[in-house]
Amino acid sequence: MFGALxxxxxxxxxxxxxxxxxxxxxxxxxRVGGNGSAxxxxxxxxxxxxxxxxxxxxxxxxxxxxxxGIAALQKGALxxxxxxxxxxxxxxxxxxSAREYxxxxxxxxxxxxxxxxxxxxxxxxxxxxxxSPVWPDGSRMRVVLRPESDVDTTxxxxxxxxxxxALANAHARPGMLLAVTDSDCLTALEKTPGAFGTAxxxxxxxxxxxxxxxxxxxxxPTLKNLARGSYPFSKHYYLVQGRSPSPAVREFTAFVSSPAxxxxxxxxxxxxQLATKER
Length: 279
Known about the structure:
One of its GO terms (molecular function) is ATP binding. This is ABC transporter ATP-binding protein. Keywords: ATP-binding, Nucleotide-binding, Signal. By secondary structure, the protein is α/β, with parallel strands linked by helices. The protein folds into 2 domains: about 5-105 and about 235-270, Periplasmic binding protein-like II (D-Maltodextrin-Binding Protein, domain 2), CATH 3.40.190; about 105-225, 3-Layer(aba) Sandwich (D-Maltodextrin-Binding Protein, domain 2), CATH 3.40.190.10. It has 12 helices and 12 strands. It has helices at about 5-20, 40-50, 65-75, 90-95, 120-130, 150-155, 160-170, 180-190, 200-205, 225, 245-255, 260-265; strands spanning about 30-35, 55-60, 80-85, 95-110, 120, 140-145, 175-180, 195-200, 210-215, 215, 235-240, 270. Strands 1, 2, 3, 4, 6, 7, 8, 9, 11 and 12 form a 10-stranded mixed sheet that branches. Helix 5 runs parallel beside helix 7 (about 160-170). The relative contact order is 0.21.
């Protein structure tokens, strides 16, 4: 329910973008789109860049997702894509290049009214294996899943083979909540009593979402803990450009890797990657 209408809207936006029905690029405009959890921080970067370069405006195209943004870039409907995954071999062979610019804690979260403050790997495995999980106080838990092909699903599945299988079982279980986009997931977590799911810390911070991030195995999902390696999960963000990027694209990409942009990214819940390499 939470994802059906947004899925239609997202597919419509992607179709119109690829078909050229989205308004054409204006002079001095860069069109950027892709992974939804990264867009809040990108809007802050775009505003800062515009102050330095008033002749250039960054237009953020929402509701495309990582793969949708890359596809739109390949079709010429975007000038730059933001992805939460590295490029596939066929995308690289097609002339695309990607530069990692930040990473953010990937967190397990609950509805704000849930009193629990942390979860362990054993508890995660247990709740995914249950058809009707409950919280310690006996109240109903509603697990909010992401599509099986989504980056968030992949990150959870990588924890262990047992959790990968439990997650597959949960996807096959009738009546589960499925959130198509990152924003859908946070909305479901905010509105559904007893909800449990995942999110990127930067998405929570930049959109001021009312959810409760959980400690994992006793470790808080903070930037400090991520930087020193004690918190294990992160979402990586890449700027993807075509074979022959314009000077404006190269300049904005360079700005995103600058110390000034790094301060913005950090305040937005990211660890900036100031010395990055193409992937």
